[in-house]
Write a structure and sequence with these properties.
CATH superfamily: START domain
CATH topology: Alpha-D-Glucose-1,6-Bisphosphate, Chain A, domain 4
Number of strands: 8
Strand content: over 45%
Structural class: alpha+beta
Radius of gyration: 15 Å
CATH architecture: 2-Layer Sandwich
Number of helices: 2
Amino acid sequence: MTLFRPLLLSWLFMTYSAFATAGDVIEATVTNEDKRYFVNLEVVINADARHVFKILTDYENLTSISDSITESNLIYSLSDNDHRVKVTTKACVTFFCKTIVQIQDVEQLPGMVIISTTIPDKSDVDYAHARWKITSNDGLTHVSFNADLKPSFWVPPLIGPPLIERALRNEALAVIEGLEILAQQR
């Protein structure tokens, strides 16, 4: 899922509570350590959990979730639960924009869990691993998203990490808002 959406999706937070977005943000943090970014997002959205899961696993149509996802394709499936997916995103941090291609192995686990691992030699990241957990509670959906990623491109040391952290946080919350809107339409 990740990601910078796939990077999020990946994907994508410093603690942030005063955010105008769909759902209730429980936690939204991005931390940076040794050129790696760690994303944690916990939200509750007003949507059916099965619909949210279905949207996240519709690999041919991930572009409907967010404008930053410019392409998504199912490359092949090994089974009903194991897939190889290509996701292309356009990520912008201030005036700097980059198109990021990720080839991901995606595994759908019992309990509406989705794990994605990016294949570095086929992608524009050195490392990316993301985990989505979707649960239902009283008609609402709890979404837990965790990602660990390392960009393969140069990031300016002093101003780059805070800008990327902000962009990742904003993008992750935009993905959640897109999920809620799409799930309510089904």
